[in-house]
Amino acid sequence: MQRRKSKDSLTVPGSVNRNGQRVVGCLRDDANNQLAKVYEVTCTLCAYSYAAYGSDLWQRKCPGCQDGSERLPKS
Hints:
The protein has a domain at 7-56. The N and C termini lie far apart (42 Å). The chain has a 3-stranded antiparallel beta sheet, with no helix packed on it. 0% of the residues lie in helices and 28% in strands. By secondary structure, the protein is mostly beta strands. The relative contact order is 0.23.
């Protein structure tokens, strides 16, 4: 029986979700939500780099080549 990755394990730098989005690292805590962190993510298919909330990493699609939702500001 194969174990599924937990959604929390996708916040570890180097993790890749099912859509080929790789976590580079944590950029910051979100000012509007103390529990949300913003991560830098890079698409392994087209190398597009963007920011995303940690809670969304498991399902993120690239805004550059997969019609993913717009990116957050990195700073």
